[in-house]
Amino acid sequence: xxxxxxLPDGRIVVEFVGPPSVAKALGLEGxxxxxxxGLVALEELKDISVEETRRA
Length: 56
Hints:
The protein is mostly beta strands. It has one helix spanning 20-25; strands at 2-6, 12-16, 29-31, 35-40. The protein has one helix and four strands.
């Protein structure tokens, strides 16, 4: 799961690449080809680890 950005109301836009069953269980929308996205309240996030990806 990737955290994409924080909205003004505090929710976080997340993206997920993985099995449809997992994405649907998490309440995300999309498909297995384009990826899955959703909105998550900040207090729902647990066990966050940060991995920085540098872009050229």
